[in-house]
Here is the input.
Amino acid sequence: MPVLSTWMVRAALLSLGFGFALGAWMLTAKAIPFDPTYRRLLAPHIEVLLFGWLLQLAVGVALWILPRFEKPPKYGRIRLAWTGFFLLNTGIACVVIGSYVGGPSHPLALAGHVFELAAVLLLAIFLWPRVKPFMG
Here is the structure.
């Protein structure tokens, strides 16, 4: 498994744990009213699980499982994918912090969404040449 794939799957697992912790906090706060601001965690909860867990796991596995090139570099322009990985995680962190502090329209949350969009575009550009029809 490529190093980037390993990092993406590990980051996805960390996001899953963090997203579940946010969900557990919200459910507990709903049942036992000790935190009146628990509803502010809904947007970060969704963000972490949707982009941090699902998207990152899917891209990490795709990077590993899609056919490699015959000539080096085997995986293509890997720096593009590393940049996408860092942009995606930076974007998730910005959206989580911005959404919690000031809601979904907070400038930090909006900047995070821009980072995520750039990351998705870079990762798609990286993976696109490796998607080929089955020649069996």
